[in-house]
Amino acid sequence: MKDSKTVLLIVDRLDKGGLAHVLLTLACGLLARGHRVGLALLENSVAYPLPEAAWLRINEAERPSRRWRHAAFRREVTGFARQAISDFETEHGKADLIIAAGELAIRCVPPIHHPRIVFSSHSSQLQAAKMSGLIGQLRLGFKRLRRGWRLQRLLNGRHVHVVSDGLAKELTGSLKVRPASVHVIYNPFDIDAIREAARQSTPESLKRLRPFVIGIGLLTKNKHFSRLLEAFAASGVDGDLVLVGQGGDEEALWQLARAKGLDGRFEIVPFHHNHYALLAKASLLVVTSDSEGLSNVLCESLIVGVPALSTDCPHGPRDILGGIDERALVPLDRIDLLPERIHSLLDKPYDITDAMVERFSVDKVIDQYLALIDMLDE
């Protein structure tokens, strides 16, 4: 392989969320190592500064609100992606690697049969059953058949990347997709930059004068922060509970906090520029989701030296916390264990070693992405 590679990242959008952070970290890491990088955004939604050295194209077409227009919109996105690849290669030469990341990319880029494309999935296609009992399982089974058929049509015979072993098993097992190859590569984290940010003081971190447990993420049903709130109240521990995020469940969570007698001990802090400073002051991070692709916040928690506790949900938490401490994962059918686990991990937190976090370092992850080029050359 020549030293400098040409990499194009085709991504749905770069707004709030884990995928945007992952792709920008990857882009900046590749640029820092002297590679040529392009970004092609399938939707015009950007919430982060973009690297100035990266080649850039943004699709200006708006996603339609009417469902009957979605098929036409996806065709427009396919055309944009095809033109972006052509323009990028005209300026920088043939691409060594093209990563198509995100749900829209996975639906719209497969008609483009470029030999260097790897499709990148960062989230579960099935998640957990949304209803309990037989009806919930029947609906999940129907979803498995429908999603499986669609993904088989899109990804059979193509090269695929996923961010956890659990997602790989879901794709090839439950969904019966038969890719040409499947590669598990964790999300990249700039460990030194995160730790430096964690050492800073922010208005949000300076307010925390008492010990606290923290949860970070969108305040939506899938994240189930109500579980964390109920478990914290039942644990009997001292200190506060702080949630970092925003979303449609915010008012319901405030009402639940009042009902559980947590007045003065519960706070919701909106997403802000540097949540690492606040996370680093916490005694414990807790994730209570029904589904995670990998869970960036679990990785970030270990990086800044804060023990993490999570539901053992599909699919990423086990990749991160499995084998660290038996108390760190709670089965979804044993949510009743959460209060005791919170109490236990606050009383006797587990040790966090360098080996636990180095596997997520940006350099290690970039090496794995670049290794895909050798695979495509074979």
UniProtKB/TrEMBL annotation:
Signal peptide: none
EC number in record: 2.4.-.-
CDD domains: GT4_GT28_WabH-like
Tagged with keyword Repeat: no
PROSITE patterns: PROKAR_LIPOPROTEIN (PS51257)
GO molecular function, one term: glycosyltransferase activity
Glycosyltransferase subfamily 4-like N-terminal domain boundaries: 17-192
Protein name as annotated: Glycosyltransferase
Organism for this UniProt entry: Crenobacter oryzisoli
